[in-house]
Design a protein that fits this description.
Layout: H1 9-23, E1 38-39, E2 41-47, H2 59-72, E3 75-76, E4 79-84, H3 90-98, E5 102-105, H4 110-126, E6 134-139, H5 150-159, E7 163-168, E8 185-188, H6 189-193, H7 203-222, H8 226-252
Parallel strand pairs: 1-3, 2-4, 2-6, 4-5, 6-7, 7-8
Length: 253
């Protein structure tokens, strides 16, 4: 859906999550780590309300800098940008599209934008079953004290071997930066916009990385479908919530 056209995020979320859950155990976990350079494409999921465009408003330069930040990490491939926003001016809308950024949603509240972004994340993974083919750069804030499934989905993608990258505000506490289990790279927003380098991982994250590699090897040997089971659980919870809402609506009628 493009522009201001609306959908039912909950129904679509359940449908695509179900399809993902059924296919996740057919992915290609590998026993060995990839070696750079990494030839894979990246999709940037950018909430322009959570993370406003740089002050100079030059979105061509912004896209170039973000692409350079990715190439600095030795990832080589196409970088495409998906944008989500609330109220945008005509000028902002024109500049976004002029820069080649796909404006998928506007005029939407935070929860609706987040749900739509999660749909697009799942769909991207669904069409790229091999984790070596696709990277995710998520520039969208979570909703405090709400179970939005954002980090659950990021964790499932990491367990399947995808590169999941995350963006945090410049003043975000270092102690709350997502660990390697959720995101392999994390940038502060202004640093990413300048084409800079991600936050250095802590020692504990390095240990988590080694643990994750070992766990993936065991997963291959045992034929585990842990990622599929977790995503199925997410789907079941969303489906239950949807059913409850439908029951409430019927009762009200």
């Amino acid at each position: 859906l493009i522009g201001s056209q609306r959908s039912n995020p909950k129904i679509s979320f359940v449908h695509i999550s179900q399809s993902m859950a059924e296919s996740m155990d057919t992915g290609t976990d590998t026993d060995t780590e990839r070696q750079p350079p990494f030839y894979s494409n990246t999709r940037v999921f950018w909430d322009v309300t959570d993370f406003p465009a740089p002050p100079d408003g030059d979105l061509d330069r912004f896209c170039f800098k973000v692409s350079r930040a990715i190439s600095n990490e030795r990832f080589i491939g196409d970088v495409e940008f998906y944008a989500y926003g609330d109220q945008l001016t005509d000028e902002e809308r024109i500049e976004i599209r002029r820069a080649g950024i796909l404006l998928l949603q506007e005029g939407a509240e935070k929860r609706e934008r987040l749900n739509r972004m999660l749909l697009d994340v799942l769909e991207y993974a669904f069409h790229n079953r091999d984790p070596a083919d696709a990277n995710f750069l998520i520039a969208m804030k979570d909703i405090p004290d709400k179970d939005t499934k954002l980090f659950s989905i990021m964790q499932v993608l990491r367990q399947k071997g995808y590169e999941v990258w995350f963006v945090v505000p410049d003043d975000y506490p270092a102690s709350q930066v997502p660990t390697f289990d959720y995101a392999t790279l994390v940038w502060r927003w202004s640093i990413l916009c300048a084409g800079g380098y991600p936050i250095e991982p802590s020692d504990s994250d390095s240990d988590a990385h080694e643990t994750l590699v070992a766990a993936k090897k065991r997963q291959n040997e045992e034929g585990s479908s842990q990622g599929a089971q977790k995503l199925q659980k997410i789907t079941d919870e969303e489906g239950s919530a949807q059913g409850a809402e439908t029951t409430d609506e019927d009762g009200a009628q």
